[in-house]
Amino acid sequence: MGLEIVDVENHGDLSTEKITLRATSNNVNIWNYLLTDTTYRGDGSISNKLRHVFDFDCLDAIILNSGDYVVLYTGKGTDQIVENSGAKIYIIHWGLNETIWNKDGDKAFLIKAESRIKKAV
Description:
Blueprint: E1 3-9, E2 18-23, E3 28-29, E4 33-38, E5 52-55, E6 63-64, E7 69-73, E8 80-84, E9 87-93, E10 107-112
Parallel strand pairs: 7-9
Antiparallel strand pairs: 1-2, 2-7, 3-6, 4-5, 4-10, 8-9
C-alpha cells in the first residue's frame, strides 16, 4: 500500500493525541490517502460508520520515501518537517477542538484513493 499505521498515542489528551504513519516504499504521494476512525458495535464487531475523516489532499504536496513518517496530531499547532537519521518526519495538525481516539477502543483506517472526483453539491 505504501503507507501504514504505526500507532495511535495519548488517546483523549487533545494536546498530545496523535497517530503515526510510516512510508513503506518510495514515491508515496500522501494526497492519495484518507484517514478515518470508527468504533465498535455492542457485539464487539467493527462499525461501518466513519466518524472523522482526514483527507491528506488538503495539504501541500508531500511525496514520502521509505522510512519517512507522518505524525498527525488531533489538536492545533504548527506544522513542520524534521529530519532524523536521514528520514523525514512530517508533523501535521488536524486543528480539531476535541479528541478523536477513544480510550476504550477505536479502529483507525487508512484508505488509499488514487482516483477521485470531487463535486460541490
